[in-house]
Amino acid sequence: MAPVYAAGSGSGGPTLNPLLAQRALSRGASSSTASTPPAYGSIVTVLSIDGGGVRGIIPGTILAFLEEKLQEIDERPDARIADYFDVIAGTSTGGLVTAMLTAPNDEGRPLFAAKDINDFYLEHSPKIFPPVCGGLVGLAKGVFSGPKYDGKYLHSIVRELLGETRVSQALQNIVIPTFDIKLLQPTVFSRYDAMNDVSKDALLSDVCISTSAAPTYLPGHQFETADKDGNTRAFNLIDGGVAANNPTLLAMTHVSKQILLGSQDFFPIKPADYGRFMVLSLGTGSAKAEEKFDAVEAGKWGLLGWLYNQGATPIIDSFSQASSDLVDIHASVLFQALHSDKQYLRIQHDELKGDEASVDVSTEENLNRLVDVGKGLLKKPACKVNVETGKNEPDANRGTNEDELIRFAKMLVKERRARLQKMGNNTP
């Protein structure tokens, strides 16, 4: 089991926290089934999941395939995604998936198998995003009387799902961004920070509700935490997509921060030694291929035009897609410059159309269509971003996304087995 750390007592590095360690042990995890700390490894493994509302079904489909391959290759039917990744980051709907993959059940294992994620979306999305009035009536409601949805069902199901689980109790190192609308700055929740700062050890349900609070769609979320002295800290949060719709770089820099702070969880590498990282970044799709708007048309829009146009919200779509793509370009250039481009895999679909591209259309037809999009994406060639145009193009040096995920699965299994062997050799 990964060691559990809290703030050090003046030594500059973290020390083992017996209370948190005991809490983890009480959940029943064992070294044969739990994740292994990267301190025993040779690479740092990162999983990142974009925001995108109901389009979370697309990465859900990808993750189900990957977990199935991990189980086959490692010959462990109970293997879970969290057993193989050192850091799992997610924004908005990706944050909810992150919680599903890492929150502990009563046996101390991940709450959800990856194959069950889509069942959650298929069952609950129609209640999270129920049908609302369309046309001018629906537009007027969204502009003058609050967000499109009241969020009550989302809040209730997330609280029921996660209960009293706190960020520090996640089975793996998680990174979930939000944005504090009062302070006008990003607020990032992570297991590392929660173990060192009690005021950041929020209920995981509060974090998931916050990172999903997309402007115009769902209400912002306010809550408080208390530090060890009983002082309260207030959070006024909205969707993490405002800060990092694609949290890949956030996850990587979070590892670097922990190394700089002297974390004993990592093997001794330089904080920016990204050639030792292996990163899987999952998008939720976009409607780039539609080319729906142009500058001449947008030049005529006022506030309402940017908030609602042809069934879309251009201002939100623009900043979330820009955020995601810039991160992909940065990460791709970084790994290519380090001659480690095979250790970075971005899976994204840029050809969604109509309702498929929405974040909230929850008809049975559209949800099932998104499942098909995810399955079809597995068969498509693996792509990499063209650093000149910013567009995803097939990578001639790679096979399909399915092929690449199998290759990643083999590397993940090999890394985990090597860590287990090293842990065994170092056991007194």
TrEMBL record:
Domain PNPLA: 47-252
Enzyme category, top tier: hydrolase
Matches recorded under CDD domains: Pat17_isozyme_like
Pfam family, one: Patatin
Active site, per annotation: S92 (nucleophile), D239 (proton acceptor)
Superkingdom of origin organism: Eukaryota
One GO-annotated biological process of the protein: lipid catabolic process
Chain span(s) of sequence motif DGA/G: 239-241
Entry-linked InterPro entries: Acyl_Trfase/lysoPLipase, PNPLA_dom
Short sequence motif GXSXG: positions: 90-94
EC numbers: 3.1.1.-
Alphabetic keyword roster: Hydrolase, Lipid degradation, Lipid metabolism, Plant defense
Motif range (GXGXXG): 51-56
GO molecular function, one term: phospholipase activity
Family named by the database record: Belongs to the patatin family.
Function text: Lipolytic acyl hydrolase (LAH). Possesses non-specific lipolytic acyl hydrolase (LAH) activity. Hydrolyzes phospholipids as well as galactolipids. May play a role in disease resistance.
Domain note: The nitrogen atoms of the two glycine residues in the GGXR motif define the oxyanion hole, and stabilize the oxyanion that forms during the nucleophilic attack by the catalytic serine during substrate cleavage.
Protein name: Patatin
